[in-house]
Amino acid sequence: MLLYGNAVVGQSGGPTAAINATLSGVIRGALSAKDDGIIGTLFGMRNGIEGLLSEELVDLFHIFDTEEKLTTLEATPAAALGSCRKRLKAPSIDADAYEKLFDIFRRYNIRYFFYIGGNDSMDTVLKLSEYSSELDWEMRFIGVPKTIDNDLAATDHTPGFGSAAKFVATTMKEILRDVSVYKIPAVTIVEVMGRDAGWLTASAALPALSGDAPDLIYLPERSFSPEEFIEDIKEIQKTKPAVLVAVSEGIRDENGRYVGEGTDSRAVDAFGHKALSGAGRVLEALVKEKIGCKVRSVELNLPQRCASHIASLTDIGESVMIGGAAVKAALVGSTGVMMTFERENSPEYSVRIATADINGIANEIRRVPEEYINDRGNGITEAGIAYLAPLILGELSPIYENGMPRHIVI
Amino acid sequence: MLLYGNAVVGQSGGPTAAINATLSGVIRGALSAKDDGIIGTLFGMRNGIEGLLSEELVDLFHIFDTEEKLTTLEATPAAALGSCRKRLKAPSIDADAYEKLFDIFRRYNIRYFFYIGGNDSMDTVLKLSEYSSELDWEMRFIGVPKTIDNDLAATDHTPGFGSAAKFVATTMKEILRDVSVYKIPAVTIVEVMGRDAGWLTASAALPALSGDAPDLIYLPERSFSPEEFIEDIKEIQKTKPAVLVAVSEGIRDENGRYVGEGTDSRAVDAFGHKALSGAGRVLEALVKEKIGCKVRSVELNLPQRCASHIASLTDIGESVMIGGAAVKAALVGSTGVMMTFERENSPEYSVRIATADINGIANEIRRVPEEYINDRGNGITEAGIAYLAPLILGELSPIYENGMPRHIVI
Question: Within a 10 A sphere around the Cβ of A13, how many other Cβ atoms?
Answer without folding.
Answer: 25
